[in-house]
């Protein structure tokens, strides 16, 4: 592997409480509290909650907010908010800071139509002045660090996030995460890590590179191309909750995790499955857990017929199948 120019933790990241330059991306329906807790148990510089709609969070009944269990107070956790109204964004930030949030992250990168149609997420890249009003309101509302996650621009004709980054830094943003695609690209094509470099050069705050970073090799390439202070990993952690710690270790910025194999892997997956059932309830938890089980079995090379048995089993019947699915003879011989 080529020499990595960011082998030690940047002091600016350490000042935010990060323990390595590798963060877990917020992924709707995936990075819930049980999953973030598992990733953190192996080692992660930072984990970011699933996106919270600011107004809905503020207007929710206290019992609903309590059930959200964002883990706001957990060390090494950032809570991400989204919205289009400065008042609601500020109120949500204050509410979350009051619950113990260590970092508030503002989402200006989500490309989903249901988000941009409400003039939130990456739709804000079309109106920097309005985006800045939201940023200023959130920063003024809380005493904890506020960070920003966004993209290169709305489309190929408006890759102007360097200008937004400078204004965001002036407004008090403490860290940026840049996904190396425009909104109109969604997740198509390859992330352009080199296009993040002008944004890194435009600011003095740390920048994390995001997009298509799934292992140490891609992290190394993203850092070299962008000059970023760290990386954010999303799908690379699916079925591999230890992957962030692996990446940090291979980049020289943390101890190598003990990657679970055999019966230890079965125990890890069973515990994750049980945590999801406890968190969501048996019915919903069973449905949510299927995608995680699918990723684990894909990683283990589980035969398709056995995968189907596991994924169609009742929640209570999953655990007895895991030893065969994850450590059967066909995997041991692979």
Automatic annotation (TrEMBL):
It holds the Pfam family Dus. FMN binds at residues 26-28, 80, 149, 179, 234-235. It catalyses: a 5,6-dihydrouridine in tRNA + NADP(+) = a uridine in tRNA + NADPH + H(+); a 5,6-dihydrouridine in tRNA + NAD(+) = a uridine in tRNA + NADH + H(+). It comes from the Bacteria. The keyword Lipid biosynthesis does not apply. The active site is at residue 110. Its cofactor is FMN. Gene3D superfamilies: Aldolase class I (3.20.20.70), Putative flavin oxidoreducatase, domain 2 (1.10.1200.80). Residues 24-309 form the DUS-like FMN-binding domain. Keywords: Flavoprotein, FMN, NADP, Nucleotide-binding, Oxidoreductase, RNA-binding, tRNA processing, tRNA-binding. Its EC number is 1.3.1.-. GO terms for molecular function: flavin adenine dinucleotide binding; tRNA binding; tRNA dihydrouridine synthase activity. It is an enzyme of class 1 (oxidoreductase). Catalyzes the synthesis of 5,6-dihydrouridine (D), a modified base found in the D-loop of most tRNAs, via the reduction of the C5-C6 double bond in target uridines. PANTHER family: TRNA-DIHYDROURIDINE(47) SYNTHASE [NAD(P)(+)]-LIKE. This is tRNA-dihydrouridine synthase. It comes from Jannaschia rubra. The gene is dus_2.
């Amino acid at each position: 592997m080529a020499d990595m120019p960011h082998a030690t933790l940047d002091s600016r990241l350490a000042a935010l409480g990060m323990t390595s330059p590798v963060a877990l991306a917020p992924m709707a329906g995936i990075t819930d509290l049980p999953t973030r807790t598992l990733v953190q148990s192996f080692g992660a510089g930072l984990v970011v909650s699933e996106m919270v709609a600011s107004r809905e969070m503020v207007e929710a009944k206290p019992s609903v907010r309590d059930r959200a269990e964002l883990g706001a107070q957990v060390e090494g956790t950032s809570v991400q908010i989204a919205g289009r109204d400065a008042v609601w964004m500020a109120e949500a930030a204050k509410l979350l800071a009051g619950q113990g949030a260590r970092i508030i992250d503002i989402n200006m990168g989500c490309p989903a139509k249901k988000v941009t149609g409400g003039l939130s997420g990456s739709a804000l890249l079309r109106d920097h002045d309005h985006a800045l009003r939201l940023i200023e309101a959130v920063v003024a509302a809380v005493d904890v660090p506020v960070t920003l996650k966004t993209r290169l621009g709305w489309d190929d004709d408006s890759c102007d996030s360097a200008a937004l980054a400078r204004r965001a830094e002036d407004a008090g943003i403490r860290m940026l995460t840049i996904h190396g695609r425009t909104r109109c690209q969604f997740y198509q094509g390859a992330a352009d890590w080199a296009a993040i470099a002008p944004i890194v050069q435009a600011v003095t705050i740390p920048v994390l590179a995001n997009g298509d970073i799934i292992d140490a090799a891609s992290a190394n390439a993203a850092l070299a191309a962008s000059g970023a202070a760290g990386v954010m990993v999303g799908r690379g952690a699916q079925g591999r909750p230890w992957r962030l710690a692996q990446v940090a270790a291979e980049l020289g910025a943390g101890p190598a995790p003990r990657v679970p194999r055999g019966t230890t892997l079965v125990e890890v997956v069973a515990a994750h499955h049980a945590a999801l059932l406890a968190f969501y309830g048996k019915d919903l938890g069973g449905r949510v857990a299927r995608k995680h089980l699918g990723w684990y079995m894909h990683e283990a090379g589980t035969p398709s017929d056995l995968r189907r048995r596991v994924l169609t089993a009742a929640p209570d019947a999953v655990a007895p199948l895991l030893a065969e699915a994850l450590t059967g003879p066909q995997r041991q011989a692979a």
